[in-house]
Amino acid sequence: MPRPETGNRFDDDDYPAYTVGAAAEMIGTTPAFLRALGEAKLIKPLRSEGGHRRYSRYQLRIAARARELVDEGTPIESACRIIILEDQLEEAQRINEELRAANPPQT
Question: Which CATH number fits domain 12-102: 3.40.50.1100, 1.10.1660.10, 1.20.1250.20, 3.40.50.2000?
């Protein structure tokens, strides 16, 4: 019986491909640190059918940024807030750029 076409999920930044152990190892931290990021609502891992946490590459980039800030001495709650604000700023800049491109100044 042929398997359904799934595409290449590992190229999808949002595909929850990594277990908590693998994710922690990839970014050089502990599973407890990843759970703390979830408790702080910075990242919300998806759950496998068995209830295990699964992380995407996008979430791992966010977690790695949090780890950088914490390693520099920033409290985890503050690191999470900084990352959220950085993300909001990036999104606002992207929207602003799109609006400027769609509505060039008239002279």
Answer: 1.10.1660.10
Torsion of CA 82, 83, 89, 95, to 10 degrees: -160
Specify whether the backbone of 72 is left (phi greater than 0), alpha (psi in -120 to 50) or beta: alpha
Token digits of residue 55: 């992380």
Q: What tens digit of pLDDT does each residue of 27-82 get?
A: 999 999 999 999 999 999 888 888 889 999 999 999 999 999 999 999 999 999 99
Beta strands in the chain (DSSP E): 18-19, 46-47, 53-55
pTM for this predicted structure: 0.77
Residue 7 has pLDDT above 60, yes or no: no
Give me the residue label for tokens 């979430």: 59
